[in-house]
Amino acid sequence: MNLRPAPLQSDRIAVERARIDFLVQRDGLGGAAQWVRHTIGIYRRAVLDRQHYASRPEYRRGFIQSYCAFKAWLGCVAASSNRMHATAHE
Question: Are the beta carbons of 64 and 47 closer than 8 angstroms?
């Protein structure tokens, strides 16, 4: 039984942001984005699979919060990329 409370959403976001920042430093923005996309798929499948521990109540919230943090990061990267692309063509 897991006796530790699930981290608050803001804590989860900070942890995932630190992971992504590390990947950006190590692999560049493209490599980090590729890892985030891949991890989103893994987390989504894990939460939906009743056999996977990520679907259990004590873990599910954390996986979903991480998934949402990853999706938000990808959205910011895409928006930033679109703005840069539009500015370059003005």
Answer: yes
pLDDT tens digits, one per residue of 5-26: 455 567 888 999 999 999 999 9
Residue 58 covered by a domain:
yes
Q: What end-to-end distance do the CA atoms of the chain give, in Å? A: 58
Counted domains in the chain: 1
The residue range of the domain holding 73 is 25-88
Q: Report the predicted TM-score, pTM, of the whole model to 2 decimal places.
A: 0.78
Separation of alpha carbons 53 and 60, rounded Å = 8
Q: Is residue 72, in this structure, part of any structural domain at all?
A: yes
What digits encode the pLDDT tens for the residues 42-56?
999 999 999 999 999
